[in-house]
Amino acid sequence: MDTQAVFANPVKEESTEKAPKSQLIALLDEVGRHVDILRRDLLLLEARKDTVLSTLDTIRHSDLLSQLSNEETAEVELYAERLTKLCSGMDVKITTTRDLRQEEALYEVNRGLNFYRIVSYYLKEYHLFNEILL
Question: Which one GO biological process term can you cite for this protein (predicted)?
Answer without folding.
Answer: protein stabilization
